[in-house]
Protein backbone atom coordinates (compact mmCIF):
# COMPACT_ATOMS: atom_id res chain seq x y z
CA UNK A 1 0.00 0.00 0.00
CA UNK A 2 1.11 3.54 -0.64
CA UNK A 3 1.00 6.76 1.37
CA UNK A 4 2.37 9.41 -0.94
CA UNK A 5 0.13 12.36 -0.03
CA UNK A 6 -0.21 14.35 3.20
CA UNK A 7 -2.63 12.71 5.63
CA UNK A 8 -4.86 15.79 5.81
CA UNK A 9 -5.42 16.04 2.05
CA UNK A 10 -9.00 15.18 1.08
CA UNK A 11 -9.36 13.46 -2.27
CA UNK A 12 -12.59 12.61 -4.06
CA UNK A 13 -13.40 8.89 -3.94
CA UNK A 14 -15.71 6.81 -6.09
CA UNK A 15 -18.30 4.63 -4.36
CA UNK A 16 -20.91 2.37 -5.88
CA UNK A 17 -23.14 -0.65 -5.32
CA UNK A 18 -25.01 -2.65 -7.94
CA UNK A 19 -27.23 -5.67 -7.28
CA UNK A 20 -29.43 -7.87 -9.46
CA UNK A 21 -31.66 -10.65 -8.13
CA UNK A 22 -33.81 -13.01 -10.18
CA UNK A 23 -36.82 -15.25 -9.64
CA UNK A 24 -37.76 -18.41 -11.54
CA UNK A 25 -40.87 -18.27 -13.72
CA UNK A 26 -41.64 -21.31 -15.86
CA UNK A 27 -38.00 -22.37 -15.52
CA UNK A 28 -36.63 -19.05 -16.78
CA UNK A 29 -34.91 -16.32 -14.78
CA UNK A 30 -36.87 -13.11 -14.49
CA UNK A 31 -35.64 -9.94 -12.81
CA UNK A 32 -36.97 -9.47 -9.27
CA UNK A 33 -34.61 -6.96 -7.68
CA UNK A 34 -32.33 -4.29 -9.11
CA UNK A 35 -30.32 -1.76 -7.13
CA UNK A 36 -27.86 0.82 -8.45
CA UNK A 37 -26.12 3.55 -6.51
CA UNK A 38 -23.08 5.73 -6.98
CA UNK A 39 -20.79 4.81 -9.86
CA UNK A 40 -21.85 1.14 -10.01
CA UNK A 41 -24.49 0.13 -12.55
CA UNK A 42 -26.11 -3.15 -13.60
CA UNK A 43 -27.47 -3.22 -17.13
CA UNK A 44 -29.66 -5.94 -18.65
CA UNK A 45 -29.29 -5.82 -22.44
CA UNK A 46 -31.97 -7.42 -24.57
CA UNK A 47 -30.48 -10.72 -25.70
CA UNK A 48 -32.08 -13.92 -27.00
CA UNK A 49 -32.36 -16.70 -24.48
CA UNK A 50 -31.35 -16.42 -20.86
CA UNK A 51 -30.63 -13.06 -19.20
CA UNK A 52 -27.28 -11.27 -19.21
CA UNK A 53 -26.22 -8.80 -16.54
CA UNK A 54 -23.51 -6.29 -17.41
CA UNK A 55 -21.86 -4.56 -14.46
CA UNK A 56 -20.33 -1.16 -15.08
CA UNK A 57 -18.13 1.27 -13.14
CA UNK A 58 -19.02 4.71 -14.50
CA UNK A 59 -16.05 6.27 -12.69
CA UNK A 60 -13.89 4.94 -15.51
CA UNK A 61 -11.45 3.05 -13.29
CA UNK A 62 -10.26 2.51 -9.74
CA UNK A 63 -7.80 4.37 -7.57
CA UNK A 64 -6.90 4.50 -3.88
CA UNK A 65 -9.89 4.71 -1.56
CA UNK A 66 -12.57 3.79 -4.14
CA UNK A 67 -15.23 1.29 -3.03
CA UNK A 68 -17.31 -0.90 -5.36
CA UNK A 69 -19.73 -3.71 -4.58
CA UNK A 70 -21.48 -6.08 -6.99
CA UNK A 71 -24.05 -8.76 -6.13
CA UNK A 72 -25.97 -11.29 -8.23
CA UNK A 73 -28.48 -13.94 -7.12
CA UNK A 74 -29.54 -16.73 -9.50
CA UNK A 75 -32.53 -18.86 -8.38
CA UNK A 76 -32.96 -22.63 -8.58
CA UNK A 77 -33.10 -24.17 -12.03
CA UNK A 78 -32.31 -21.06 -14.07
CA UNK A 79 -29.37 -19.70 -16.05
CA UNK A 80 -27.83 -16.23 -15.95
CA UNK A 81 -24.65 -14.83 -17.50
CA UNK A 82 -22.89 -11.86 -15.91
CA UNK A 83 -19.94 -9.83 -17.17
CA UNK A 84 -18.43 -6.34 -17.11
CA UNK A 85 -18.90 -3.77 -19.85
CA UNK A 86 -15.19 -3.32 -20.42
CA UNK A 87 -11.83 -4.02 -18.84
CA UNK A 88 -11.54 -2.61 -15.33
CA UNK A 89 -8.54 -0.35 -14.77
CA UNK A 90 -6.71 0.13 -11.49
CA UNK A 91 -4.77 3.40 -11.73
CA UNK A 92 -1.93 4.84 -9.67
CA UNK A 93 -3.03 5.37 -6.07
CA UNK A 94 -1.91 8.59 -4.40
CA UNK A 95 -3.03 7.13 -1.06
CA UNK A 96 -5.20 4.32 0.23
CA UNK A 97 -6.39 1.17 -1.51
CA UNK A 98 -9.29 0.58 -3.87
CA UNK A 99 -11.63 -2.18 -2.74
CA UNK A 100 -14.03 -4.28 -4.83
CA UNK A 101 -16.42 -6.87 -3.36
CA UNK A 102 -18.28 -9.33 -5.58
CA UNK A 103 -20.82 -11.74 -4.07
CA UNK A 104 -22.84 -14.13 -6.21
CA UNK A 105 -25.15 -17.04 -5.45
CA UNK A 106 -26.63 -19.83 -7.56
CA UNK A 107 -29.42 -22.12 -6.35
CA UNK A 108 -29.85 -25.85 -6.91
CA UNK A 109 -29.93 -26.72 -10.61
CA UNK A 110 -28.93 -23.19 -11.58
CA UNK A 111 -26.18 -22.22 -14.01
CA UNK A 112 -24.10 -19.08 -13.48
CA UNK A 113 -21.51 -17.79 -15.95
CA UNK A 114 -19.43 -15.04 -14.30
CA UNK A 115 -17.22 -13.72 -17.10
CA UNK A 116 -15.67 -10.35 -16.20
CA UNK A 117 -13.33 -8.80 -18.72
CA UNK A 118 -9.69 -8.10 -17.89
CA UNK A 119 -8.42 -6.09 -14.94
CA UNK A 120 -5.55 -3.86 -16.10
CA UNK A 121 -3.17 -2.80 -13.35
CA UNK A 122 -1.10 0.35 -13.81
CA UNK A 123 2.15 1.26 -12.08
CA UNK A 124 1.62 2.15 -8.39
CA UNK A 125 -1.93 0.76 -8.36
CA UNK A 126 -3.31 -0.43 -5.03
CA UNK A 127 -6.25 -2.84 -5.21
CA UNK A 128 -7.98 -5.28 -2.88
CA UNK A 129 -10.71 -7.48 -4.37
CA UNK A 130 -12.80 -10.28 -2.90
CA UNK A 131 -14.99 -12.51 -5.05
CA UNK A 132 -17.28 -14.94 -3.22
CA UNK A 133 -19.52 -17.33 -5.12
CA UNK A 134 -21.93 -19.54 -3.17
CA UNK A 135 -23.43 -22.58 -4.92
CA UNK A 136 -26.28 -24.75 -3.67
CA UNK A 137 -26.80 -28.41 -4.48
CA UNK A 138 -25.81 -29.23 -8.07
CA UNK A 139 -25.48 -25.64 -9.28
CA UNK A 140 -23.07 -25.11 -12.18
CA UNK A 141 -20.48 -22.31 -12.33
CA UNK A 142 -18.26 -21.10 -15.14
CA UNK A 143 -16.03 -18.16 -14.30
CA UNK A 144 -12.85 -16.48 -15.44
CA UNK A 145 -10.47 -13.80 -14.18
CA UNK A 146 -7.65 -12.08 -16.06
CA UNK A 147 -4.97 -9.74 -14.67
CA UNK A 148 -2.86 -7.61 -17.01
CA UNK A 149 0.20 -5.85 -15.55
CA UNK A 150 0.47 -2.86 -17.88
CA UNK A 151 -0.36 -2.80 -21.60
CA UNK A 152 2.58 -3.93 -23.72
CA UNK A 153 1.33 -2.07 -26.82
CA UNK A 154 1.45 1.19 -24.85
CA UNK A 155 4.94 0.51 -23.49
CA UNK A 156 3.61 0.41 -19.93
CA UNK A 157 5.62 -1.25 -17.18
CA UNK A 158 4.55 -2.01 -13.62
CA UNK A 159 7.44 -1.53 -11.18
CA UNK A 160 5.42 -0.91 -8.02
CA UNK A 161 2.07 -2.40 -7.07
CA UNK A 162 -0.04 -3.57 -4.15
CA UNK A 163 -2.59 -6.25 -5.02
CA UNK A 164 -4.67 -8.69 -3.03
CA UNK A 165 -7.13 -10.60 -5.22
CA UNK A 166 -9.02 -13.47 -3.59
CA UNK A 167 -11.63 -15.78 -5.14
CA UNK A 168 -13.62 -18.30 -3.12
CA UNK A 169 -16.23 -20.76 -4.37
CA UNK A 170 -18.32 -22.83 -1.94
CA UNK A 171 -21.02 -25.46 -2.37
CA UNK A 172 -23.53 -25.76 0.48
CA UNK A 173 -21.04 -23.85 2.62
CA UNK A 174 -18.12 -26.18 1.87
CA UNK A 175 -15.09 -24.64 0.10
CA UNK A 176 -14.54 -25.95 -3.43
CA UNK A 177 -11.95 -23.47 -4.64
CA UNK A 178 -9.90 -20.80 -2.88
CA UNK A 179 -7.57 -18.92 -5.21
CA UNK A 180 -5.62 -15.90 -3.99
CA UNK A 181 -3.06 -13.59 -5.57
CA UNK A 182 -0.97 -11.15 -3.55
CA UNK A 183 1.69 -8.92 -5.05
CA UNK A 184 3.75 -6.05 -3.72
CA UNK A 185 7.11 -4.44 -4.46
CA UNK A 186 9.08 -7.45 -3.21
CA UNK A 187 7.08 -10.02 -5.18
CA UNK A 188 7.27 -7.88 -8.32
CA UNK A 189 11.04 -7.88 -8.00
CA UNK A 190 10.88 -11.69 -8.14
CA UNK A 191 8.24 -11.82 -10.89
CA UNK A 192 10.79 -12.45 -13.62
CA UNK A 193 12.04 -15.64 -11.99
CA UNK A 194 11.11 -18.91 -13.73
CA UNK A 195 9.10 -20.08 -10.71
CA UNK A 196 7.10 -16.83 -10.72
CA UNK A 197 5.73 -15.01 -13.78
CA UNK A 198 8.85 -15.29 -15.93
CA UNK A 199 8.39 -12.97 -18.91
CA UNK A 200 4.59 -13.00 -18.57
CA UNK A 201 2.69 -9.79 -17.88
CA UNK A 202 -0.81 -11.24 -18.13
CA UNK A 203 -2.28 -14.16 -16.19
CA UNK A 204 -5.72 -15.77 -16.24
CA UNK A 205 -7.80 -18.43 -14.53
CA UNK A 206 -10.77 -20.22 -16.08
CA UNK A 207 -12.84 -22.54 -13.89
CA UNK A 208 -15.74 -24.88 -14.63
CA UNK A 209 -17.29 -26.16 -11.40
CA UNK A 210 -20.17 -28.62 -11.57
CA UNK A 211 -20.82 -32.35 -11.17
CA UNK A 212 -18.76 -34.14 -13.82
CA UNK A 213 -16.68 -31.06 -14.74
CA UNK A 214 -13.54 -33.21 -14.87
CA UNK A 215 -14.94 -34.89 -18.00
CA UNK A 216 -14.34 -31.63 -19.87
CA UNK A 217 -10.58 -31.86 -19.32
CA UNK A 218 -9.51 -33.76 -22.45
CA UNK A 219 -11.33 -31.55 -25.01
CA UNK A 220 -10.18 -28.42 -23.17
CA UNK A 221 -6.55 -29.56 -23.28
CA UNK A 222 -6.91 -30.10 -27.02
CA UNK A 223 -7.70 -26.38 -27.42
CA UNK A 224 -4.84 -24.91 -25.37
CA UNK A 225 -2.35 -24.35 -28.19
CA UNK A 226 -2.22 -20.59 -28.83
CA UNK A 227 0.72 -18.50 -30.05
CA UNK A 228 2.22 -16.45 -27.23
CA UNK A 229 0.35 -18.26 -24.44
CA UNK A 230 1.43 -20.90 -21.95
CA UNK A 231 -1.53 -22.82 -20.57
CA UNK A 232 -2.25 -25.94 -18.55
CA UNK A 233 -5.46 -27.58 -17.36
CA UNK A 234 -6.41 -29.97 -14.59
CA UNK A 235 -9.63 -31.69 -13.64
CA UNK A 236 -10.81 -33.54 -10.53
CA UNK A 237 -13.87 -34.04 -8.34
CA UNK A 238 -16.28 -31.73 -10.15
CA UNK A 239 -13.70 -29.08 -11.04
CA UNK A 240 -11.85 -28.24 -14.25
CA UNK A 241 -9.32 -25.41 -14.08
CA UNK A 242 -7.22 -23.73 -16.75
CA UNK A 243 -4.34 -21.39 -15.93
CA UNK A 244 -2.78 -19.20 -18.60
CA UNK A 245 0.11 -16.74 -18.88
CA UNK A 246 1.24 -14.49 -21.72
CA UNK A 247 3.49 -11.51 -22.39
CA UNK A 248 0.43 -9.40 -23.20
CA UNK A 249 -3.30 -9.54 -22.68
CA UNK A 250 -4.33 -9.91 -26.34
CA UNK A 251 -3.16 -13.50 -27.02
CA UNK A 252 -4.53 -14.48 -23.62
CA UNK A 253 -7.91 -13.05 -24.60
CA UNK A 254 -7.91 -14.99 -27.87
CA UNK A 255 -7.44 -18.26 -26.01
CA UNK A 256 -10.01 -17.31 -23.37
CA UNK A 257 -12.63 -16.61 -26.05
CA UNK A 258 -11.89 -19.94 -27.72
CA UNK A 259 -12.28 -21.85 -24.44
CA UNK A 260 -15.43 -20.00 -23.36
CA UNK A 261 -17.04 -20.59 -26.75
CA UNK A 262 -16.30 -24.31 -26.49
CA UNK A 263 -17.57 -24.69 -22.92
CA UNK A 264 -20.66 -22.51 -23.36
CA UNK A 265 -21.56 -23.75 -26.82
CA UNK A 266 -21.90 -20.11 -27.85
CA UNK A 267 -19.74 -16.98 -28.03
CA UNK A 268 -19.02 -14.86 -24.92
CA UNK A 269 -21.36 -11.94 -24.14
CA UNK A 270 -21.62 -9.26 -26.82
CA UNK A 271 -19.64 -6.71 -24.80
CA UNK A 272 -16.60 -8.99 -25.15
CA UNK A 273 -16.63 -8.56 -28.92
CA UNK A 274 -14.25 -6.03 -30.45
- What series of H and E elements makes up the topology? EEEEEEEEEEEEEEHEHEEH
Count of DSSP-assigned helices: 3
How would a textbook summarize the main sheet? 10 strands, mixed
Q: Helical content, roughly? A: under 10%
**Backbone CA Rg:** 19 Å
End-to-end separation in angstroms reads 34 Å
**How would you describe the shape?**
globular
Question: How many runs of DSSP E, i.e. beta strands?
Answer: 17
Approximate strand percentage: over 45%
Uncertain runs are: 4-8
Mean pLDDT: 90
Q: Please identify the structural class as seen in this structure.
A: mainly beta
What descriptors fit this protein?
globular, 48% strand, 7-stranded mixed sheet, mainly beta, 274 residues, 10-stranded mixed sheet
Amino acid sequence: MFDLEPADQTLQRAKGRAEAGFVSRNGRARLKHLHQSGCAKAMLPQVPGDPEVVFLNTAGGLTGGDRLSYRLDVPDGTRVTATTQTAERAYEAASGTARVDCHMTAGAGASLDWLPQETILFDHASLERDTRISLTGDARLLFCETLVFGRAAMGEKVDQLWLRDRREVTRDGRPLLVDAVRMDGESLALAGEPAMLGSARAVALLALICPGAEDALAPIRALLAEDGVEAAASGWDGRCLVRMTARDGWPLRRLMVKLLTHIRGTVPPRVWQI
